[in-house]
Amino acid sequence: MSFKCPLCMRIFSQRFAYTQHAQKCLKNVEVEVEEDDDNNDSEKYSSEMDTRSNLSSEYENDKVEVDDDNDVQNMSFDSIGSAISEMSLEDSNFENILDSSEEPEIFEEPKNLNTKTCTEFPNDAYKDLMLLVTKYKINNKGGNEIIRFFNKHSNLTESPLPKNIEQGRAFMNNMKFSNLEFSKVLITKHEDKDYFLYYQNLIQCIKNILTVPDITQNFALSYENYEYNRESIYSEQNTGKWWKTTQESLPTGSKLLSIILYSDATTTDTLGKSQLHPIYITLGNIPIWRRNKQDAKQLLGYLPILEAANKDLVRDTFHKSLRHLLEPIILLKDGIDLFINNENTWFYPRVSTIIADWPEAASFCLVYKSSNSNLPCHSCLVKRENLANIDLSVNDVILRTHDEMRKHFENDTQRSVCIESVHNFFWDLPNINIYLATVPDRMHHLDLGLFRYQIIFTCDILKSQHVNGNKLVEEVDRRLAAIPRFPGIKIFSNGLQSIARLTASEYRSLMKVMIFVIDNLYDENNNEVDNFVNNDDLTKLYEYWNEMYILSRYEEFSESDLEKFNDAIHRWARMFVKAFKFVSPSNLKLPKLHSWVYHIIDSIRSYGAINGYTTETYESLHKYFVKIPYRISNKKDVEPQLLRTIKRQAISIRMSQHSVNPAKTPRTCKFSARLFEFSLQDANTFFNEKKIPYHNKVWFSDIAISMDSEESNDYISDKGLCYGQALLLAEVLTDPPLNLALIQCYRVYTWCRSHSTPI
Description:
Helices cover 40% and strands 14% of the residues. The chain is of the alpha+beta class.
């Protein structure tokens, strides 16, 4: 089959070659609409647009015969309008657009457009169009079709819309907002190539976070010493020891502003050939439940990625970038005033924790990344041969400190403690021990780390200690595939065959079912295999894992909880070492195993509950700040394009928030039937009759009450919610009727599970 271009009559034998040619050919013969700001004749405008439409229509009609797979570029205006009307959530439909084979240059922005700097759109129609295009990631061709359709049918003498979407994007790029400006600075030059840091001012990032509605509602301003039964309680970061010692070092009357950094290099394409290194910021003063939401975090910048044989140059570039980002902390000798809860508060910003995976943490600490080094742990000086030792004493675990590491660096003995020959920037920052601030991350340590090892080693044991080991692995796959569907559990129809591609969420789903899959899987050691692991021990291993993992997700820890947690960790670790030491290629010399066993408890005491410094809620940021903006770029000089896209998205969100939705009329509850009636004098008798025998308590509907913002501080609530049971619904027959509810509330304390009291 051949393909003939209707514009230049060239014939192509391949569809792809024809498609590429047709795009360029149409662009060359398109009739340009001349812009005339002062004298815009509507008839001439419509005529020119119709001419352009006819050429496009002729080309489109011919392309239908070709049956091109490029749905986005070939989409007609009607299909665009239909697609937009069906989009309820932007993210759910973006993936189809982004994964299509569209040409990247359809999103490319002209560089030389004379656009005035301003903070408002010329008119509402202009604004609504650009917000629509930005929100739904409509490409230039689709946006231009919307403009053409509007201009053709609006019957206006002068179009309120931009000439084309390129001009509209350029207009948004030139809009000036002090809190949306990014800068770049040259960090280093290597082999005639400049490496820039693209960043936003640290203080401005903090102010941006504080402007988010309700973000300061429960903003922590001081250390809180929670105790229950004379035991300290660790939950939020301001209940930890780091906050206490740091606050004591600050001037009287000032407050501590805790800065949390998250850094993780990520691939931008499916082949993994291109990378970007974003770094994000949030505040430890914000409660954990609120901090884990996306709007409580800000993109601080993109770190330069230097590929060079000289690794010291790579490390120095990384720390130079960090110094430039965090320099305001050093320069603010007298702190900073921030507007919190309608009043100015004097703060001293300090870096509290850095959330990263293991290689990233080694880059921050400038220790050897290799797990085969003599001292592979970035937090302490434990020797490699002791990584699998579960019975180390306190004297065997010597923590790294800034003073000791600096002495080795200055005395040129850094190799003895396995640190790099580069000055560590964090040695100059106040109130931080970088070797402890890079806290163990549950997602990388457990979900994607130790549990993954546990699954792999389990399969290795089944294969090595049984004659028909492969059949046992197949039986594991069969059992996994046979699990029926249930809410919250992923179905592994192919078993463990794709374990290398499992996500953290999928590993957490495996945790729920693996104990049942392993139970009664094989018989005892009939073949007298050495180092045989019996089925009961393997089942107990998964039982101990689940107990430990559930404890790790506690929102608060008392000292007795920490002892219980520590016992659970050591109980699982001993069974883990016992079962897998002889099948592990490294004899379980795993830095993550040592770090989890010996450093997680101290991290809780210093920085609060683990939920406050896990990467589970940060990974999704890559989608919005890296992957989606990258896919709609032209893949050249990427960082500036990403920042412009992010800026337009921020403008779109800001402008959308200014639109006020009409107030909804509250509707009273309407009762459809009367279930029972009784005299109020007999209420006690009635409730006793309704008690169920199992709990000997009244059983009614469980409800959650959202407290009014003005009254929420008068109650102890869970993230603004109070829980209880509806004991009685009543309607007073007035005009209008008055609906009442008798609620038995559960009074929730921060240091215990729950107590109930009727109101």
